[in-house]
Amino acid sequence: MPVSQALALFVKLIRRIVKYLIDLRRSIVEDTVPANPSAIPLQDAVASQVENELKEAGKEVEKEMKERLDKSRIMIGELDLSR
Q1: CB 18 within 8 A of CB 11
Q2: Is residue 59 in a domain?
């Protein structure tokens, strides 16, 4: 058997092994992860909780910004501009 034929058979064997391993990995992942994302009700609960927390944090930041703006306005109003 010529060397080129032996190498061709070796490459063919390696490709089959790699394909088998990829299929095996794919089947293991499919068994552990649900195909339907809506099958995870916890995900929706977490998403809504995160959204609520972000809204609350945004309100707090807006309140702090308004307080700082009010303080700045007071300080500007108290400046002596009579010079």
Answers
A1: no
A2: yes
Type of residue numbered 48: S
pLDDT digits 0-9 by tens, 68-81:
999 988 888 888 77
| 10 inside domain | yes
N- to C-terminal Cα distance for the chain? 104
Q: What is the CA radius of gyration of the chain?
A: 33
Are both 31 and 57 inside the same structural domain? no
Task: Give the residue numbers spanning the domain of 60.
Answer: 51-83
d(CA 51, CA 45): 10
pTM score > 0.85 for this model? no
Give the tens place of pLDDT for each residue, 17-58: 999 999 999 999 888 876 666 656 667 778 888 899 999 999
